[in-house]
Amino acid sequence: MESTRNKLIHLLEENKDTYISGQFLSDKLNISRSAIWKHMKELQKDGYEIEGIPKKGYRIVGFPDRLSENALQWGLKTDWLGKTIIHKEVVTSTQHIAHQIAQENTEHGTVIIADEQTNGKGRMNRHWYSSRDKGIWLSIILRPSILPYLAPQLTLLSACVLADVISQQSELIPKIKWPNDILVDGKKIAGILTEMQAEQDQIQYVVIGIGINVNHNHNDLPSDIQAKASSILMETNRNWDIKHFIQQILVTFEKEYNEYIEHGFTHVKKKWESYSFKIGEPIRISTLKSQWTAIFSGIAEDGALLVRNNDGTTEKLYSAEIDWFHEV
């Protein structure tokens, strides 16, 4: 259920070019004018600039430049994604919080966002460096009506969402490196971690973790990844509005997810392959038993990597080590 405060924010947004009387707001929200005044003071603490004039009412004249639940929901044009947003300044990991509250039956579409992670999680338990106020560190809780073996498709869908938003907002040309990295000019600027809790034939919940380097300078990145990582700022030479980027991600994610649930994976597969890094090119593959070179030909319905071997056969790969940058 939408909170009184969020309803107030939406009323202010809908009438941002005029004054709204305290009595009108009181009647609409079924609370006292004194309560309206207290809510306005709380919004001002969050960084909103609200002008109040006797006999005219209230209107908003400025927006917060820092993240908060209210700031993120202000102007967010989604139907279900992000209707509940939990914002924290510092966390160990948004994934950790997401799992905790998902087990408490929090609603589908809940989003957890942090300004900083002290122990951000990447794929295969790798550490994700999450500098304060420099990037986007968020997790989305989903309760999809799909079978557990299809959950990897949500990673591929999420990668398409990030590629879409980055290209639309910044005009960069992102590429997706299977299964979950977003590259620009061969350097990683974003990653995705998908985790789930499921029974044999039913998903209880899925947590999609998203990390994007947005306003990092070169020296903001740890020295051991400076040669292979980048940020949107470094690639465009300008700072970006993190709140706006998050809102665009949520809007695009909801649209793509709805399409996927209604029509299946075909659209996602086609889009993913259009963004794919090195599709149609030779790659070097290593497993515990052997090493070989094959042509990367696309992705399968279950998210596996498809390669075409020298003998013309097509093979599915789920967990091989891929050398994407070796000159074959």
Layout of SSEs?
Elements: H1 4-14, H2 22-29, H3 33-45, E1 49-53, E2 57-62, H4 69-73, E3 85-91, H5 94-102, E4 111-121, E5 127-130, E6 135-142, H6 152-170, E7 175-177, E8 181-184, E9 187-198, E10 203-213, H7 232-236, H8 242-263, H9 266-275, E11 282-286, E12 291-299, E13 305-308, E14 314-317, E15 321-323
Parallel strand pairs: 3-4
Antiparallel strand pairs: 1-2, 4-5, 4-6, 6-10, 7-8, 8-9, 9-10, 11-12, 11-15, 12-13, 13-14
Please provide a written account of the structure:
The N and C termini lie far apart (56 Å). This protein has helices spanning 4-14, 22-29, 33-45, 69-73, 94-102, 152-170, 232-236, 242-263, 266-275; strands at 49-53, 57-62, 85-91, 111-121, 127-130, 135-142, 175-177, 181-184, 187-198, 203-213, 282-286, 291-299, 305-308, 314-317, 321-323. It is built from nine helices and 15 strands. It is an alpha+beta fold and 328 residues long. The strands form three sheets. Strands 3, 4, 5, 6, 7, 8, 9 and 10 form an eight-stranded mixed sheet that branches. A hairpin with a 5-residue loop joins β12 (291-299) and β13 (305-308). The protein has three domains: 4-62, Winged helix-like DNA-binding domain superfamily/Winged helix DNA-binding domain (Arc Repressor Mutant, subunit A, Orthogonal Bundle); 69-275, BirA Bifunctional Protein, domain 2 (2-Layer Sandwich), CATH 3.30.930.10; 282-323, SH3 type barrels, CATH 2.30.30. Acts both as a biotin--[acetyl-CoA-carboxylase] ligase and a repressor.
